[in-house]
Amino acid sequence: MSKFEAKEISAMFNIDGEIVVCLTASNISKSAARYTVRELKDLHEPLSVEIKVAKSNRTLRQNAMLWSLIEKIAIAQSGNKREQDTMDVYCYLLEKTNCVTDYVLAKDDIELSKAYRVVKKIGEREIVNNKGEKITLNLYKVYVGSSKFDTKQMTDLIECALDLCAELEIDDSEVELTRRTYNA
């Protein structure tokens, strides 16, 4: 499926009186738009077109900033940046910001741990199944990972990481630049 971001839309008519819809690709989407045209130009079948407002997803720059801060925090806390240490910091930040959460009833957390970054058991609930039997299920609070965040949620996560850097007295040029970027 072809996908690119456009900054404006306009319409004109060809010599047969048919409407031609024109999309102006944003600078970051120029090559994707070019590829889309090349890919679909010689296709001799009708196209289904859906245009919607672009969602402001987290940026690659935000992601790089976050993981740089996470590594600095892991080193300050444990002396290294092993994967488990950085994931512990990441999960702590997800919990602390409470950005994207949901509640799920399940027997155990095995399958939930595959679908969510953080899974916390917060209680138990007794329910009656369709056979009329009472069963006890665990109630979990689950946290979605930052790959699903928009720029606002990602900003909150970065600001939380910056707060933790300040608590741990982590201060270098990279942290200061990130702090100035986010006015934290």
Overall description:
With 184 residues, this protein is α+β, with helices and mostly antiparallel strands. The protein folds into two domains: 1-54, no CATH class; 60-182, no CATH class. 43% of the residues lie in helices and 23% in strands. It contains six helices and five strands. The chain has helices at 30-41, 60-78, 83-97, 110-115, 151-167, 173-182; strands at residues 6-13, 19-25, 101-106, 118-128, 134-143. The strands form two sheets. A three-stranded antiparallel sheet has the order 3-5-4. Strand 4 and strand 5 (134-143) form a beta hairpin. The longest helix has 19 residues, at 60-78. It is flat. The model has no long low-confidence stretch (mean pLDDT 86).
SSE order and pairing:
Layout: E1 6-13, E2 19-25, H1 30-41, H2 60-78, H3 83-97, E3 101-106, H4 110-115, E4 118-128, E5 134-143, H5 151-167, H6 173-182
Helix pairs in contact: 2-3, 2-5, 3-5, 5-6
Label this structure with key terms.
alpha+beta, flat, 184 residues, three-stranded antiparallel beta sheet, 2 domains, two-stranded antiparallel sheet
* Count of the domains: 2
Mean pLDDT: 86
What is the 3D form?
Answer: flat
State Rg.
Answer: 24 Å
Q: What would you call the structural class?
A: alpha+beta
- Roughly how much helix do the residues carry, as a percent range? 40-55%
Number of strands: 5
How would you spell out the order of helices and strands?
EEHHHEHEEHH
Low-confidence stretches: none
Biggest sheet layout:
3 strands, antiparallel
Task: Count the DSSP helices.
Answer: 6
Strand content: 15-25%
Oligomer: single chain
